[in-house]
């Protein structure tokens, strides 16, 4: 038998499976800002796991809450019953959400949160007697998870290529970015044409047929693109004007990543629905959710009260272990004042990342909150090769960065120090200097 540490029984997600067999990357422990590899090396985590361990790894309060919950009640369904912690968690999330968003539907992942939000959007219009509104509008480079709904509104062609046909009733906005915006610090300057692209879409699709527009306030996995100043405001205006729901996918930006509980508050724009996951439990137990605005929720709470209002849910919605982790995560956020911490350290992050502008192969640098991206020029005929090489060199030097093709994406735990920011940037610079 092959060693149990890495066999091909485990088919890894989003991984070159056969290459992984040759060069497995295995971790055995995590604490604070670091992972421990299976050969005992400490690696600085510049990705907060996968955009999720916002408060750093192994927060004792979260670990203890999970342990305690598991020992008390392993599982209870939330179909026609539930448990007290689910209500407390929903109330506490609503308390940090934008005003007027007082309800939470729990899921187990970001993908489920997105699909749930799309279904709520269509069902909302149905509930109001406006069944024509079915079109779902996404945006170029948007990543909304891997369910068929999220994939249909996704703006990443390669992700969709092998799985069609997807939902027929979708359309897409362009990415609000062009070469003039390269090396912008934080949000690029306004360019009204981008949000007005929604108006152009109205020429092709009557706005009275559109159910919802879904965007990540900051495009995340697609390469960390902050919204131009005023862009989200304009989207909000147009959606309101035409009775279209606006959904923010905050699976990455939620839970303090951009210096406020949600990006909605950081950018001063309130959507109708917010998808969240990842940082919700600090990555410690799978959980996601949709935060629902009161107008949307109230539209469902009409008619006969004994009838189920939303025929939707998951066996593990509001799982007791996830709720315990979620509550402890909120405690840790309060205790460590993580949103304020991000605001304080974001200028250090911005300056350090933009210091890479003159390093070899760097084509663009983007940042907002504690998110960052470094675009590298591709090697001729070998897209992604340079990004892979930098990722490997950084890992060997003790820093875990993520590359999406030739874009390095960065999202460290929010407890990162200025010295650790320096360590990440130095390792990238060294890797670039050594990489052809
Ligand atoms: C913006 C966004 N939405 C949805 C998802 C999907 O989340 P999950 O992988 O938990 O299903 C992700 C995952 O990275 C994401 O970044």
Task: Describe the model.
It is a single chain. By secondary structure, the chain is α/β, with parallel strands linked by helices. It has 2 domains: 17-58 and 337-434, Alpha-Beta Complex (Aspartate Aminotransferase, domain 1); 64-336, Aspartate Aminotransferase, domain 2, CATH 3.40.640.10. 37% of the residues lie in helices and 16% in strands. It has 15 helices and 15 strands. It has helices at 17-22, 48-51, 60-72, 84-96, 110-127, 148-153, 157-160, 192-204, 231-241, 263-267, 294-300, 320-336, 338-354, 385-396, 418-434; strands at residues 27-31, 34-37, 42-45, 103-107, 135-139, 170-173, 210-215, 245-249, 273-276, 288-292, 362-368, 371-376, 399-400, 402-404, 407-410. Strands 4-10-9-8-7-5-6 form a 7-stranded mixed beta sheet, with helices on both faces. A 4-stranded mixed beta sheet has the order 1-2-3-13. Helix 8 packs parallel to helix 9 (231-241). Pyridoxal-5'-phosphate (PLP) binds next to helix 5.
CATH superfamily of the largest domain: Type I PLP-dependent aspartate aminotransferase-like (Major domain)
According to DSSP, the number of beta strands is 15
List segments where confidence is low: pLDDT < 50 over at least 5 consecutive residues.
none
CATH topology of the largest domain: Aspartate Aminotransferase, domain 2
How far apart the termini lie comes to: 40 Å
Instruction: Describe the main β-sheet briefly.
Output: 7 strands, mixed
Q: How many helices? A: 15
């Amino acid at each position: 038998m092959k060693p149990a540490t890495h066999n091909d029984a485990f088919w890894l997600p989003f991984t070159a499976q056969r290459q992984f067999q040759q060069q497995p990357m295995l971790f055995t422990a995590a604490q604070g800002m670091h992972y421990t590899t299976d050969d005992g090396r400490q690696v600085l985590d510049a990705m907060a796991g996968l955009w999720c361990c916002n408060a750093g790894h192994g927060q004792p309060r979260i670990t203890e809450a999970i342990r305690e919950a598991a020992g008390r009640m392993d599982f209870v369904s939330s179909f026609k019953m539930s448990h007290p912690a689910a209500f407390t968690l929903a109330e506490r999330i609503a308390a940090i959400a934008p005003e007027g968003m007082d309800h939470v539907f729990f899921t187990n992942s970001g993908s489920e949160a997105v699909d749930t939000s799309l279904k709520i959007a269509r069902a909302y219009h149905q509930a109001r007697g406006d069944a024509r509104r079915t079109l779902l509008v996404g945006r170029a480079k948007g990543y909304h998870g891997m369910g068929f709904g999220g994939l249909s509104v996704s703006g990443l062609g390669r992700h969709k290529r092998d799985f069609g046909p997807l939902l027929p009733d979708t359309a897409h906005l362009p990415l609000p970015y062009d070469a003039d915006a390269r090396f912008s610090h934080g949000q690029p300057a306004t360019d009204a044409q981008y949000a007005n692209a929604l108006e152009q879409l109205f020429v092709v699709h009557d706005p009275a047929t559109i159910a919802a527009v879904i965007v990540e306030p900051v495009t995340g996995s697609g390469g960390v693109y902050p919204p131009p100043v005023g862009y989200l405001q304009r989207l909000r205006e147009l959606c309101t004007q035409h009775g279209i729901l606006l959904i923010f996918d905050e699976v990455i930006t939620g839970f303090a990543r951009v210096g406020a509980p949600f990006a909605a508050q950081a950018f001063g724009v309130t959507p109708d629905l917010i998808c969240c996951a990842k940082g919700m439990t600090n990555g410690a137990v799978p959980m996601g959710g949709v935060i629902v605005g009161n107008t949307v929720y109230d539209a469902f709470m009409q008619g006969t009260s004994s009838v189920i209002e939303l025929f939707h849910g998951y066996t593990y919605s509001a799982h007791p272990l996830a709720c315990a982790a979620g509550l402890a995560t909120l405690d840790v956020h309060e205790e460590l004042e993580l949103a304020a911490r991000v605001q304080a350290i974001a200028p250090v992050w911005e300056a350090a990342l933009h210091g890479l502008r003159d390093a070899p192969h760097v084509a663009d640098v983007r940042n907002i909150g504690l998110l960052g991206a470094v675009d590298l020029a591709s090697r001729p005929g070998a897209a992604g090769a340079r990004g892979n090489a930098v990722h490997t060199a950084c890992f060997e030097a003790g820093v875990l960065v993520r590359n999406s093709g030739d874009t390095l994406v960065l999202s460290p735990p929010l407890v990162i120090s200025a010295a650790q920011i320096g360590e990440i940037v130095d390792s990238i610079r060294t890797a670039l200097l050594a990489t052809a």
